[in-house]
From TrEMBL:
This is MFS transporter. The chain crosses the membrane at residues 80-104, 110-131, 143-164, 170-194, 291-311, 323-342, 444-463. It comes from Streptomyces griseoviridis. It is found in: Cell membrane. It is a multi-pass membrane protein. It comes from the Bacteria. Keywords: Cell membrane, Membrane, Transmembrane, Transmembrane helix, Transport.
Length: 487
């Protein structure tokens, strides 16, 4: 089961032993360093040398914008966070409204619903790498604002079409495709803008606060989404999301932070050469590569699930739009909890164990979906599963994103994030199509059961990687890329 996803939201010690105590080769490669006088391994150091000693955090970060004090006292961060939160709220409404438009009002078939999911998941495959180059070539804030304004305009075509004539499935496909394409550009620019806005020492804190705020916004959006759809109608309810994009653009426009212009490109450098540089960094940095591969498996399975989830609940379990909105909104409560706990857990155990623990909860949280029947009891059980899964997703997502942001060099931020997104999301449209085909052939219940079981795969990918051994300290070699073998 998946909650509403939005971009306006859509990797500490390498030990020399395995968890069973047996000796194993250092997964991080050569170059272990020892602290003078203590003999301990030096803390794992990203590009900005954030330090974690033992089980407590000591972060002598370099001076960044408004570095001292709480982030909530930083005016620019408040504008950024509130802009994200408002638009996530709007996206929660649209998630419900589009499902109701397709399933209830247009009587879409299982495969038609999967095609809408396919349309929304195709742009990351086609555009992510180019979006990364664009973000590294341009100032990022204007890109985000432009995407917000264009998304608002596209969404407003749905209520306009209903007023003038009628909405068709082709129109839904077009809106899903166009908004997703704009979100690819805006999402990448937004994620890579945050390190510039905060300074490197506050990235984890910023991601944790963003996770909590976005989860609260998702809780509000999805819970109000069902009620708004009932009160206004599905198409008119989408105007709420369009308005949220406009509000987000206004708040981002008011940010005062001066974003340095990107460094000049080397003469004769092509876009494909810059894309290749981002791919090389991602695939030759062991920790980043492992996290991205695990993210890819997670994204594929959840894309298959999300293609059928609303259809299954609305059609086979006979849920009302209001019940769907309330249960989906329950995930927001789990997201808030996950955002609040991942920093303390990371300081105590390190990124690796926390990410593995979060991924291990995913298949367990799916059990209610495939066991319960119609009625209030089933809705409560699925809601509890949603709380667990969303909490784990926010915990894992915020931590892995912060680690990748810290490790990436400034000049590669856009491409590093875009490459990770491309690898993680490029298979999602095919997952949606496969889910539609299997749902038509095997039935929705059996297909969702198989998809739920497949959620163990991302955990196994991360378990069999260097990330498994990331505790509270790790060598500087983690940040190095692997050199290609000499012929």
């Amino acid at each position: 089961m998946t909650s509403a996803a939005s971009w306006r939201t859509s990797p500490s010690c390498c030990t020399a032993k395995a968890s069973n105590g047996s000796c194993r080769a250092d997964p991080c490669g050569p170059g272990r360093q020892r602290e003078p006088n203590t003999g301990r391994d030096t803390a794992w150091r990203g590009r900005n040398s954030h330090t974690y000693e033992g089980s407590s955090q000591n972060v002598p970060h370099r001076s960044g914008p408004n570095a001292p004090g709480s982030l909530w006292r930083d005016r620019d961060f408040r504008h950024y966070a509130v802009a994200q939160g408002i638009s996530v709220t709007g996206s929660g409404v649209t998630t419900i409204a589009l499902s109701v438009l397709a399933v209830v009002e247009l009587h879409a078939s299982t495969f038609n619903v999967a095609l809408i999911a396919f349309a929304s998941k195709l742009p990351p495959l086609l555009l992510s790498l180019h979006a990364g180059v664009l973000a590294d070539r341009r100032r990022k804030r204007p890109l985000i604002i432009t995407c917000d304004l264009l998304c608002a305009a596209v969404l407003l075509t749905l209520p306009t079409a209903q007023f003038l004539a009628r909405i068709t499935l082709i129109h839904l496909y077009a809106v899903a495709l166009t908004v997703a394409a704009l979100q690819v550009i805006g999402s990448n620019a937004s994620i890579s803008f945050l390190p510039s806005l905060l300074g490197p020492g506050r990235i984890k804190d910023g991601n944790a606060k963003m996770g909590a705020g976005n989860s609260l916004a998702d809780l509000i959006g999805t819970n109000s989404g069902g009620a708004l759809v009932v009160a206004l109608g599905a198409a008119r309810a989408i105007t709420v999301d369009a308005s949220s994009y406009l509000a987000s653009a206004l708040l981002l426009w008011r940010i005062r932070h001066h974003e340095d212009p990107p460094p000049p490109r080397k003469a004769g450098t092509s876009q494909w050469a810059e894309i290749r540089e981002g791919l090389t960094y991602t695939l030759r940095t062991p920790v980043v590569r492992s996290i991205v591969l695990s993210n890819t498996a997670t994204s594929f399975v959840l894309a298959a699930s999300s293609a059928l989830w609303s259809l299954y609940l609305l059609r086979e379990l006979h849920w009302s739009p209001t019940a769907l909105g309330i249960v989906m909104g329950a995930g927001g409560a789990g997201g808030i909890l996950g955002a609040l706990v991942w920093q303390p857990l990371e300081r105590r155990w390190g990124p690796g164990p926390v990410m593995l623990g979060a991924l291990s909860l995913n298949p367990l949280a799916q059990i209610p979906l495939v066991l319960v029947g119609p009625g209030l009891g089933g809705q409560i059980a699925i809601g509890i599963g949603m709380v667990i899964q969303t909490g784990a997703a926010v915990c894992h997502g915020g931590l892995q994103r912060a680690v990748r942001q810290e490790l990436a060099p400034d000049e590669l931020q856009g491409r590093a994030q875009a490459t990770g997104a491309w690898l993680a999301f490029s298979l999602r449209p095919f997952a949606a199509l496969a889910a539609g085909g299997l749902g038509t052939w095997l039935g929705l219940h059996l297909t969702l059961t198989l998809i739920s079981a497949a959620l163990v795969i991302p955990f196994l990918v991360l378990w069999n990687s260097p990330v498994r051994d990331l505790g509270t300290a790790a060598p500087a070699s983690l940040t190095a890329t692997e050199e290609p073998a000499n012929p």
